[in-house]
Automatic annotation (TrEMBL):
The keyword Cytoplasm does not apply. The gene is 25488893. The keyword Metal-binding does not apply. This is Putative alpha/Beta hydrolase. Keywords: Hydrolase. One of its GO terms (molecular function) is hydrolase activity.
Length: 269
C-alpha cells in the first residue's frame, strides 16, 4: 500500500487562527518556530486571520528529512515553498510579516509572484550581514567565520551564550524560550543554516521589491545595525516606511510584543 504524500502545508504544520477580513502570514526566522509568535497571536486573532507555519529547519518539524542543506543553500527554495504553501491555502493579497531571514524570503517570493502580497513587513531584517567598504552589515567576515566555527564545535555553549545576546537579557523567560528553540533545531542543522544566512547577500534583490513595505527595526539589535533599516528604506523599489521599536535584542515578538502589535495594527488597519 502506497502512503499518500502529505501536502506541504501539513508537513510544515501550517494552521490558521482567527477569522478577520485581512490575512496576516507570520513567518519565523533562524533557529525558531511558529511558537515565537505566541504572545502576539491572541492579540491579533481578534481582528485578523493569522496563518502560521514552521520552516523545514525548525525543531518543531516532525519529518527531519524535509531539511536538506544541498537544497536550502540559499533563500530562493524557501521563497518557492512559501509560494507553494500560499497557493495550497488559497491565500492572496496578504500581509506578510517575516522575521529576520524570513523577511528576505518574503521579498523574493513577492518578486516571483506579486499578486500574493498586499504588503510586506520586514521585522529585524538584513539583506547582508558582512561589512563592505561602502556598506555596514554589522560583522566582519572573520566574525562570521568564528561564529560558524563555534556553532560547529561548541553548539550547546554557543546557544547558552547567544541567547542573552539575541534576546533582551533582562527577559529571562524569552531568552529561555529562544534557547530551547535553538536546541530543538540542533547543531547539525544550525551549522548549515547559519552559513546560508550569514554569508547571504540580497542587496540587489531588494531593489526589485515593488510591494509596499514596512521596515520594523529594533533600536538596539546586535545582529542588525540601525543603518540597515535606513538602507532598506532607501533601496526598496516600492513604497516603504521605517519604524523603530525602542528595545534591546533581535526578537520584538518575544520581548516587545505589545509595541509590535500596536505597530502591526497601525500598518494593517
Amino acid at each position: 500500500m502506497v502512503t499518500p504524500k502529505k501536502s506541504l502545508s501539513t508537513s510544515l504544520n501550517a494552521r490558521t487562527i482567527g477569522s478577520g477580513p485581512e490575512t496576516i502570514v507570520l513567518c519565523h526566522g533562524f533557529g525558531t518556530d511558529q511558537s515565537t509568535w505566541n504572545k502576539i497571536v491572541p492579540l491579533l486573532a481578534e481582528n485578523y486571520s493569522l496563518v502560521l507555519f514552521d520552516w523545514p529547519f525548525s525543531g518543531a518539524i516532525t519529518d527531519k528529512s524535509l531539511y536538506n542543506h544541498a537544497k536550502y543553500n540559499s533563500y530562493e527554495p524557501y521563497a518557492d515553498e512559501l509560494i507553494t504553501l500560499m497557493d495550497e491555502l488559497d491565500l492572496k493579497c496578504i500581509t506578510f510579516v517575516g522575521h529576520s531571514m524570513a523577511a528576505m524570503i518574503g521579498c523574493i517570493a513577492s518578486i516571483k509572484k506579486p499578486e500574493l502580497f498586499k504588503r510586506i513587513v520586514l521585522l529585524c531584517a538584513s539583506p547582508r550581514y558582512i561589512n563592505t567598504d561602502d556598506y555596514e552589515g554589522g560583522f566582519e567576515r572573520s566574525d562570521i567565520e568564528n561564529l560558524i566555527s563555534t556553532i560547529e564545535s561548541q553548539y550547546e555553549s554557543w546557544v547558552s551564550a547567544y541567547g542573552p545576546i539575541a534576546v533582551d537579557p533582562n527577559d529571562a523567560d524569552s531568552v529561555d524560550k529562544f534557547q530551547k528553540c535553538l536546541k530543538r533545531m540542533g547543531g547539525e542543522v544550525a551549522i548549515t543554516l547559519a552559513k546560508t544566512v550569514f554569508f547571504s547577500d540580497y542587496r540587489d534583490m531588494v531593489e526589485k521589491v515593488v510591494i509596499p513595505c514596512t521596515i520594523i527595526q529594533s533600536s538596539n539589535d546586535v545582529a542588525v545595525p540601525i543603518s540597515i533599516g535606513h538602507y532598506l528604506d532607501e533601496n526598496i523599489k516600492g513604497v516603504s516606511t521605517l519604524e523603530f521599536i525602542d528595545m534591546t535584542g533581535h526578537c520584538p515578538q518575544l520581548t516587545a510584543h505589545l509595541r509590535l502589535v500596536e505597530v502591526l495594527k497601525g500598518i494593517v488597519g
